[in-house]
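Proteins fold reproducibly. Look at a concrete instance:
___
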Amino acid sequence: IVRCYRDEDQRADRQPEFTQLDLEMSFVSEDDVLDVVERCFAHVWQRVLGVAITTPIRRITHAEALQRYGVDKPDLRYRLEIGELSSIFAATEFKIFRQALDAGGVIRGLRIPRAVGGKEIEALTEVARAEGAKGLAFWHRESSGWRSPITKFFGERELAELQSATQAEPGDVVVAVADQVAVAAASLGAVRKAAARMLRLVKEGAFEFVWVTDFPLFERSKETGEITAAHHPFTSPRPEDLGLLESQPLQVRARAYDLVLNGTELGSGSIRIHDPELQQRVFQGLGISREDAERRFGFLLTAFRYGAPPHGGFAYGLDRVVMLASGEDTIREVIAFPKNQQAEEVMSDAPAPAEDKQLRELGLQLLRPPAKPAP
């Protein structure tokens, strides 16, 4: 049980200082770790809240979460699901859809099981645009068929297949995004969340746990374009993906898992690498040479050579667990001396400026940023 300090952005479920329970286990697989953790949470929820949590907790892969819910932390208190519509409009001449498909993108849609007016459509469109989408296509389902400014661009077969794919009923609305996979997922994930709140589809007082597994081992940095570790470079790849490490690193899945509750990550963990040669292959995939790896991580590689056991684990923030269990929207309501948006604790006025003597004792020097030129 550790006290953690992290330089994190000040979101509602985060604080720069928090308490974490870290679980490390030897000679285990994913199933062993997940079983211990979910039985622990089921026990706590039953004893403290009198709420029965069904185990085993549902599992979905990272890829499935993004495709069906648009995020890797899905809130399953409402059943809105994103659907793949690309094949329905594969031959379309509707310009926006055609351009997206020709550029290697996708068309994905979301059925909203309520009547939604013009103002709500505009609000949801802005939500999608905030995630990079160019706009939001929509169709109103009526007893006589589809109503939309773009219905005239589609044939009867396409509209019939849209109905079959979405199972929309009179009064429902179907929205869609045509873009690259990442943009379509993120924008519809945000629309899904906004629509659920707007239409009050969230089951209040419900606790929907879900495991998200098989995260990517690597990802491409948006800033530099380089391949980086999606979580950290010590997570073990899935054995069946080892042949892709050098040829298709972005396709390699990690033996990593997150426990999610009501759209918030409770904690995460992974099965770790314990073989020095596999660790070197992962380092090389990150552009770290053998020599540099020995210089930076020689202590770890040496330990592996002596025979570290297969091991894995999980860690979660206790403060965040209390926040979700008590139904609070922000961790500041359940943590002592919470920090504000500027990471300041207003009661004791911390952090306080350090005196020169204190800095000298620690061998530190304070360098202030250059003053901005006057306009």
